[in-house]
Amino acid sequence: MKLGKYFILLILIGFCGNASAERIKDITTIKGVRANQLVGYGLVVGLDGTGDQTSQTPFTVQSLKAMLTRYGITLPAGVNPQLKNIAAVSVHAELPPFAKIGQTIDITVSSLGNAKSLRGGSLLMTPLKGADGEIYALAQGNLIVGGLGVEGADGSSISINIPSAGRIPNGASIEREIANPFAAGDTITLHLMRPDFTTAKRLADTVNQVLGPNNARAEDSVTVAINAPRDPSQRVGFMSFIENLEFQPGDAPARVIVNARSGTVVIGNHVKVYAAAVSHGNMTVTITNTVNVDQPGPFSRGETTENVESDIDVTEESSRMFRFPQGVTLSEIVRAVNQVGASPGDLVAILESLKQVGALSAELIVI
Question: pTM for this one?
Fold first, then answer.
């Protein structure tokens, strides 16, 4: 794998010695307590000539006709208004857990057609639907657009950020609630954000030490079930207590991650190398062309000619070899590579070679 000159090396050294304690709320989620995505289709009006070119976006005209029909206005057959102050948009939002009717949420509005800018526009009332097709919120309001687009008469233009998308803070009101299983059943189920059997067991052990034995059980590397009171008010206080408990999670597995696009190398703290020897060296080939001019003798009627001579010079740095002892750690790997002056690209090549010969005790991931 060839990596660029400006390859960036990022080494993340994990917990040294005893890992610091983590709160349960920081590394877990509660089963059923999640946000839901909403999406809708609407029209933005009031634009200053930067809307859709209706000749190229017929769906914008269709939407306008449908809206006018609902208000009792019917356009003559075959008439397609050419408007530049209207744009068809998609509207999406995230419905948070436990959201109640009458609360408001932020929405994002994005152009669907070829509108140049949504600055100064207003979103007309747009229903937002969930994955089940039901309407959960109604969106409407004036857009806040962070981008800027300017175009001159000669066709030159300049664009700052993205003027074809904007947001409306508190732009949608919730009209339907989503049933949540938080208060159902005799248990609360926690899901680890990073699956790990050791972490799941330690979490369950921590809860059992506080609440008593058999109150928590690790069902797999992700799921931990905890007995909880059935009364909703007691359950809220119970979860407030549980989520603030601290314990020591299990260590992350040994991994080396290489991002070939950004040139980033991440090496976990538990990466080790078995006994191996590595040779590092470079060869430089320099070719220099010299032009010699041959002049003919006086009165010889000869012609001036050019003679090109090539000089090839090969310079090879002395081969540098260093040895990794059995079970060498991350800091020793980096120190050894730095001592021979290897670049981050060389480090990646060395790690790949060690993995191929079976001397790297870690998972090598290239993304």
Answer: 0.69
